[in-house]
Specification:
- The protein is of the alpha/beta class.
- The protein has two domains: 185 residues, Quinone Oxidoreductase, Chain A, domain 1, CATH 3.90.180; 131 residues, Rossmann fold, CATH 3.40.50.
- The protein is built from ten helices and 17 strands.
- Helix 4 crosses helix 5.
- The chain is globular and about 60 Å long.
């Protein structure tokens, strides 16, 4: 079957590898119909590592094989996955890593299918593919922000697709009039303006009135951590939308004020993904603005370059095997 690989820094190639087979009774094999390029995939794209990795943390497709213990999905179900997976021996794994091949391929093996896959409707496939990754992280980080400061003010720094989901979720919860957004990418800043009372570039004069909670939309925005610190009130909170971001952010020379609380969201679970899919189907969560490009797998180099830039007008880039 065809799959993507990274032969060198900033390069994508299509390779031929064996089609995956069932290994455990809890496994399923999914024929990939749509996959997304996530920030974790872009990190691999820009890595000099020679690890043989099939990327693609987020994917959707048809179930074509199931193990004997799989009961939640059946053959021909259209499903999406959760990016994060806990193996039977308790190891944390991500699809699209050295531990678990991802969905930028024609087929993918899904361990523990009952708790990793979520049924979706064909009409919403190109948005539901985000439920177990991008959308789940954005919804979860907004929920943390609302929990720590239900009556407070908020800033979203970095309106990448994860940050945009956080903005949409905050507005859906009736606090959009208490949200500002910081984004240097013009097209993303324009999109964010529909969900925040004020939208600025990090180079603009930032508001003198600080906020109770700053949501950091992506790891890349950690490079502007001084901006984040300038926005949060004494005694306020910084919440990262990516689970591993704090460890990558507190580099030598960055001192976190003692009265500032810093935390991060967790990877969305199967239950989180199901709630998001339900909210999408009932029109309570509209992720349509997030998907800007749908590109064939054989144009993967162009797709990754567009997503990694990001190019003008790019939000979320999807691949079609």
């Amino acid at each position: 079957m065809q799959a993507l690989s990274f032969p060198s820094y900033g390069r994508v190639e299509i390779i031929e590898i064996p089609r995956p087979a069932l290994r455990e009774p809890s496994d399923a094999i999914v024929l990939v119909t749509t996959a997304a390029i996530g920030p974790w995939d872009i990190q691999r794209f820009f890595s000099a590592s020679q690890d043989n990795v099939v990327p693609g943390g987020e994917f959707a497709g048809l179930v074509v094989e199931t193990g004997a213990d799989v009961t939640a999905v059946v053959l021909d179900d259209l499903v999406t996955n959760t990016v994060h997976h806990v193996s039977s021996n308790g190891l944390n794994q991500l699809f699209g890593s050295t531990a678990l091949p991802g969905g930028h391929a024609e087929y993918v093996r899904v361990p523990n299918a009952d708790t990793t896959l979520t049924k979706i409707a064909a009409s919403g496939e190109e948005r539901a593919v985000l439920a177990g990754g991008t959308a789940g992280l954005g919804v979860n980080v907004a929920a943390i922000a609302l929990e720590v400061s239900p009556n407070g003010s908020f800033a979203v720094v970095g309106c990448d697709p994860i940050g945009m989901v956080a903005l949409i979720t905050l507005k859906n919860n009736g606090v959009g009039n208490r949200v500002i957004a910081i984004e240097d990418h013009l097209a993303r800043r324009t999109l964010a303006s529909g969900f925040a009372t004020q939208t600025l570039s990090s180079k603009d004069t930032l508001p003198l009135k600080q906020v109770d909670v700053v949501i950091v939309g992506s790891i890349q925005e950690a490079l502007e951590f001084e901006t984040v610190l300038s926005l949060v009130k004494p005694g306020g909170h910084i919440v990262f939308s990516e689970p591993y971001a704090p460890a990558r952010t507190l580099l030598p020379g960055i001192t976190l004020p003692a009265d500032i609380t810093m935390s991060s969201t967790s990877w969305p679970t199967n239950l989180d993904a199901k709630k998001i899919v339900t909210a999408m189907q009932s029109k309570r969560l509209d992720l349509t603005p997030l998907v800007s490009h749908v590109i064939p797998l054989d144009e993967a180099q162009e797709a990754y370059e567009a997503a990694a830039g990001p190019s003008s007008g790019v939000q979320k880039v999807l691949l079609k095997p």
